[in-house]
Amino acid sequence: MGQVVDIRELNERIERQSSFVDALMMGMNRVIVGQKHLVESLLIGLLADGHILLEGVPGLAKTLAIKTLAQLIEADYSRIQFTPDLLPADVVGTLIYSQKRDEFSIKKGPVFANFVLADEINRAPAKVQSALLEAMQERQVTIGDETFRLEEPFLVLATQNPIEQEGTYPLPEAQVDRFMMKVVIDYPKLEEERQILRQNLGGEHETVKPILKKTDIVAAREVVREVYLDEKIERYIVDIVFATRYPQNYGLDSLREMISFGASPRASISLALAARAYAFIKRRGYVIPEDVRAVCYDVLRHRIGLSYEAEANNMTSEEVITEILNAVEVP
């Protein structure tokens, strides 16, 4: 009985604590037309402390969305344009020798910010990608002999363009796994495009003012971790992830030949954290199966390896996830 009261009390507290979500959404919507899924995904990454990989053709407001979010939160923002000639030092920083003082001083790179936009991450060689990914994973950067902790919140939003593959260095699977979510963005709807056109032709460029401090986000993350996750939901999450590894155990024999490797344990953790953040955004103190399903595609899309057979049959990882969600029993 105590549990019921706890849930009610938790629900009320989360209802109060998550009131800033609406203000953030409104701020984002003033600048970005449509792209509701993109805005929601950015908030999930922010609240669940996970990095996001955005994939979409140029001109879909990926950079604008990230910049606006950084403006709404009083945070440092930096943008790194990845190019084939970029060096790791251009990302993390380097040691510079001063003749006058006869010593080396540290010049910090653009990774020392709260929001780091890694634009077209697949344009730079593996050395540079791994320098950024180390910062993402360890939350620290080593320059020379010194190691620096990165300030919280630290969120990397990387973009990649799915069309042009010439001169790109695709991210290795192990590195892609470091991203909590891979969000695929589509073109705006017809009415939204008209609105975008009108805004730009009219020269109306909305500016937003900060409504939150960095400490508010760190505090909100603590609350997100308190969102109640029932044992049945835990089991549901693990079942979904296991179905990507052993589809035959879930009556999905047809997928056995289609999957070359399944999702890692990181997927289970990310799925639980993202579902909690999604419940928080929906101002609920507990996770329901719909929350898991809502974030499932973005969390698993880049973690399922497709076999040659799947590619020959033009099967996508989204189709694999759909089949798994249809087969796994919902609590």
Helix-strand layout with pairing:
Blueprint: H1 2-17, H2 19-31, H3 36-48, E1 52-55, H4 62-72, E2 73-74, E3 77-81, H5 88-92, E4 93-98, E5 103-108, E6 115-119, H6 126-138, E7 140-143, E8 146-149, E9 155-160, H7 173-176, E10 181-184, H8 190-201, E11 212-213, H9 214-224, H10 231-245, E12 259-261, H11 265-281, H12 289-300, E13 305-306, H13 308-312, H14 317-327
Parallel strand pairs: 1-9, 1-10, 2-11, 3-6, 6-9
Antiparallel strand pairs: 4-5, 7-8, 12-13
Helix pairs in contact: 2-3, 2-4, 3-11, 10-11, 11-12, 12-14
CATH architecture heading of the largest domain? 3-Layer(aba) Sandwich
Low-pLDDT regions: none
| Major sheet size, sense and barrel closure | 5 strands, parallel
Distance between the termini: 21 Å
- Overall 3D geometry? globular
Residues in helices, as a percent range: 40-55%
CATH-assigned fold name of the largest domain = Rossmann fold
By DSSP (H or I, 4+ residues per run), the number of helices equals 14
Number of domains: 2
* CATH class descriptor name of the largest domain: Alpha Beta
- State the total count of DSSP E strands: 13
| Beta-strand content bin | 15-25%
Mean of pLDDT: 85
Order of helices and strands: HHHEHEEHEEEHEEEHEHEHHEHHEHH
What key phrases describe this protein's structure?
Rossmann fold, 14 helices, Helicase, Ruva Protein, domain 3, 5-stranded parallel sheet, 2 domains, alpha/beta
